[in-house]
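Write out this protein's structure.
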Amino acid sequence: MALSNFGSRALTGDALYDDSISRVRRDCDRIFSDFFNDFPRALSVGHVGPSTGGYIPRVDVREVDNNIVVHAELPGVPKENVNVDIRDNNLILSGENKQENDYDTSTGWVRERRFGRFQRSIPLPANVNIEKSCAKFSDGVLEIKLPRTQESTGRRINVE
C-alpha cells in the first residue's frame, strides 16, 4: 500500500486520489473564475489584473437615498495605499497591497491572497455632485457616497 505524507496528515489509496482531485478541481474553478471575472475589464485601457501581477477589487454599486453608494473590498490594504479619483465621469479606485516578505514557499501549502497594484474604473452618471462626495474606509471595505444632483428633465429649443 502506498503511503504519502502531507505534513502531519497521512493519506492512502482513495483518500490520496480524492484529495488530489479536490485540489485540481479547486485550482480549475479559481482559474476559470479569474478569467471570466477579469476578461471584460482586461479589454479596457489601463487594466491591472492577475496577468499583470495585480488584482481587481470586487465592488457593489447601488443607489440609496438619492446617493450612489460604492462598496469595494480591499482586505489587508492600508488606507494610505488607497486612491479615489473622479475623472471624465468615472470613479477610479487604485492603490497597492504590498506582499509580505516573510512567506516561505518551501513550507507554504496554499497561497491564494493577492498582492500588487490594483485599479478599477466605474462609469458614473453625469448627474453626480463631485464636491459633496465622501469616502470612508473600515474593516477592509471602502465606502464611497456620491450624491446625485437634480436630473435634467430636458427642454425643447425653438428654432428661429
